[in-house]
Amino acid sequence: MSVRRLDPVQPESFKFSATNLKWAREQMKKFPKGRQASAVIPLLWRAQEQHDGWLPEPAIRAVAEMLDMAYIRVYEIATFYTMFNLSPVGKYFVQLCGTTPCWLRGANDLKDVCRRVIGDQQQVTEDGMFSWLEVECLGACTNAPMVQINKDYYEDLTAESFEQLLEDLRAGKEVTLGPQNGRQFSAPEGGATTLLNGTGKAGNSGGAKRKRSGAKTKSATGRGGK
Ligand code: FES
Question: What is the reported pLDDT for 208?
């Protein structure tokens, strides 16, 4: 993991929008009096969402003041958890899983695409559309290799499908979330392989037949709470 430091270029101040301030106060009410510090992560997260996907230093300070916490304690949280971005990210922030299952299934090819199409890690493209970061397992190993872009997962990728995905996002086209190879969620590719009833078809206990809503959805979820 790379060293996590605050970005050298910081805005002068940070203020929650009226909507987010109201939301933050609601979060604080969820905890007993004197325990408002428990709301620190949701508040930092909302601050990050408001600030185009990264957490500036004045936001850390503002959250510390709101929660009556020592600045250093909030700073420690913001710099410890990798869910908080300490420098600007692209409109589409790609987190590429490089852990063993994804690595064995071609994560290095996806990394090459990132380097070629986006550039170095943690650098934002000139048009502000993309940045990327290699991260550890995102819990979708069955569908390796995969990336998370903003809040959405894109799985069963190849170098070609990943590059196409980036192109489509750049062009504002509709993209398919989840598996990119036609697989249903994390079901076996090509259909059920276990709990067959002797006819080659899945038995009643198999989940493979269960119909769920389709995964075709509009492009990556926007950042909320502005
Ligand atoms: S190893 Fe990539 S999602 Fe688990």
Answer: 38
110 lines ligand 1 (CB under 6 A): no
pLDDT at 206: 38
Atom of ligand 1 nearest to the CA of 145: 2
The partner residues of 155 in beta bridges, in order of sequence, read 179
CA nearest to 212, candidates 189, 180, 164, 178: 178
Q: What is the model's pLDDT at position 201?
A: 62
Give start and end residues of each alpha helix (H) in the chain. Answer: 18-29, 40-50, 57-66, 71-80, 100-104, 107-113, 159-170
Residue 226 maps to a domain: no
**Residue 207, pLDDT score:** 37
- Ligand 1: which of 146, 152, 156, 162 to mutate, judged by most atoms within 8 Å of the beta carbon? 146
In the reported structure, the alpha carbon of residue 212 is separated from the centroid of ligand 1 by a whole-number distance in angstroms of 24
User: Do 93 and 67 share a structural domain?
Assistant: no
Asked if residue 1 belongs to a domain, the reply is no
Per-residue confidence (pLDDT) for residue 105, from 0 to 100: 98
109 Cα to the center of ligand 1, angstroms: 15
Q: What distance, in Å, lies between the first and last C-alpha atoms of the chain?
A: 30
Taking the chain (226 residues) in runs of 10, the rounded mean pLDDT of each run is 86 98 98 97 98 97 98 97 96 98 98 98 96 97 97 98 98 97 90 76 45 42 44
One domain, residues 53 and 95:
no
Q: Are residues 148 and 76 part of one domain?
A: no
Ligand 1 centroid distance, CA of 197 (Å): 32
